[in-house]
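Submission sheet (multi-component)
Chains listed below:
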Amino acid sequence: MNNFVFQNPTRLIFGKGTIATLATEIPTDKKILMTYGGGSIKANGVYDQVKDALKNHFVVEFAGIEPNPTYETLIKAVDIVKEQKIDFLLAVGGGSVIDGTKFIAAAVAYNGDPWDLLVDQDKIVDALPLASVLTLPATGSEMNGNAVISKKTTHEKLAFGSSKTYPVFSILDPEVTYSLPKRQITNGIVDTFIHVCEQYLTFPSQAMVQDRFAEGILSTLTELGEKIVDDSTNYNQMSNFMYSATIALNGFISMGVPQDWATHSIGHELTALHGLDHAVTLAIVQPSLWRVMRDEKKAKLLQYGERVWNITQGTEEERVDAIINATENFYRSVGMKTKLSEHGIGNESFDTIVGRFTQRGWMLGENRSITPDKIREILNGCL
Amino acid sequence: MNNFVFQNPTRLIFGKGTIATLATEIPTDKKILMTYGGGSIKANGVYDQVKDALKNHFVVEFAGIEPNPTYETLIKAVDIVKEQKIDFLLAVGGGSVIDGTKFIAAAVAYNGDPWDLLVDQDKIVDALPLASVLTLPATGSEMNGNAVISKKTTHEKLAFGSSKTYPVFSILDPEVTYSLPKRQITNGIVDTFIHVCEQYLTFPSQAMVQDRFAEGILSTLTELGEKIVDDSTNYNQMSNFMYSATIALNGFISMGVPQDWATHSIGHELTALHGLDHAVTLAIVQPSLWRVMRDEKKAKLLQYGERVWNITQGTEEERVDAIINATENFYRSVGMKTKLSEHGIGNESFDTIVGRFTQRGWMLGENRSITPDKIREILNGCL
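Outcome: structure written.
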């Protein structure tokens, strides 16, 4: 096991009826900016629940944070925070709203162009306190310090992670997920699954408990997947899904283990250049990446195949094939496409993507062995 | 899944050479009381490492915190803290030292007889900051707010848990465990295993991930058990053991699930009245408790048997028998006795123990269905 430091200060408030606790979780002397996206929280009743809980608080609203939240939108909120002397941010929404709100929190405390914080996260030395009411299980943003922000003008999408931008608390009421569109549930299942894989499917690292935890989340998702796509109104099932998504990316499974994240890095480019949903890009990139990197990942693929898919028969190569296929089939079983061509996309952006990684000098993957040439090979496998 | 609130602020610093980080983890303007037990930290070099890291700090020492730390000893430290205006406590040791230091931290901030805090933990409204350097994986005290304290004069042993008494940080260097006596390793394995069971082996509660996590720790311990009893100097094995003990009782596996803790409650009485090691009492009580409560626990026993022991053959009753026997045999395989008679103890304290639970009006177990009569039946099964 590698040396590590773990700390996660977020207070997780989970269960039916917990949005009402906002009334006491935020001191009444705080001036709150309530951030959200489009109109879904008004349609599903979450907006009313939040406003009702905060009826004795001073609340300014900032709506319109988009999926893949943009610098251009968020910078407007930074101005509002400064003008209105806001001192608490409350994100009500999914990962995009929470990520965007983290950026606002850090940007307010930074003197300079806040895009700097995406280029060099060490520049985040302070942030406004923020909290969240989660409406969409997927990104895990509700219990970590990470955010991914896009810049429209340059079609860039970059991430930061900071100890300053953990939510003070996050409220997870599984009932708010009942009205989610199928596409969001499919995305959430795949996003969660691949978050776990990025922290697990690398090489054996003698972290026995962390492996078992990762496998436990993956097994839970394979058990739940089709059921929750078919019916998103079963409380216990949606509880387990919502809990899985949070635990998948709050640091519990990543202590002292190697991590990959190449699927995310490549996927971010496909979102930036083609506008594909984040999870959609992951489901396309990961199977191809595993096929290209199968030798380096073989030992862990075999462990994963045995423990999650009960694949134990055949030669190692046959099992690896079966394991990658089982994973891709799982994504398809929850309604996810796994090829660029299914989205009408060809190889038109590949030169740009490979060029960007070449220019940045990034080597991807747990061994930093995924060169720009390998990235092209992976992209070719996505067609 | 039940509603829950989870928050664990402790900073976990894990790995080789991490004791040196004390130099920067504690501000140099703090006046530290360094607490420890007997001489083992001087024999194994931990004392020297701590003192070296803190050579620029003001440090007062308080030695002699005993296994099953006593009110009578700890109250002396409370006086020292007040006299010397100590404002930071550093526990260097195992669970007893850390538990005792939590009591000191809370007692210093309390006006009145600190034993009150054991009787009514709501009286803990403040505490001095404390941290730990862990030397013995077992109790999980390094990453929770719980403590168990004994009173010599009355042969009582009571527990408290408070959000105020989480360590600010805990340092876990697996190398410090290399010199542990076999008895301590055996105790630590069993203690950790039964901590998990208390939070898991109850009734099915639709907490899929929490179940998988609990089973993951149990499987890890069954894989490691005999190996680390035979050789306590393998870094990876001791890392996994040390990590398991912390994760078993830091709240990760208990979110939204029913809990038992009857084995602990009955075990504490056996320690208080007979001086048996804590883990020794658990290994004696748990198999008997499971046999007496087998009907209420049947569904979860069968799940545990299948996933941890791969016991899937035979009738349900035969499997339950086999599963309880496998568990008891596991304790024996790591060198633990599982009967009172093996310690030369008969039924002489049973009336006292049953009388105490009757007087307190406590009903034990996840269903609060373990009456004083059931406790007597469980104790009879311990002979």
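Remark: Chain B has a mean pLDDT of 96.
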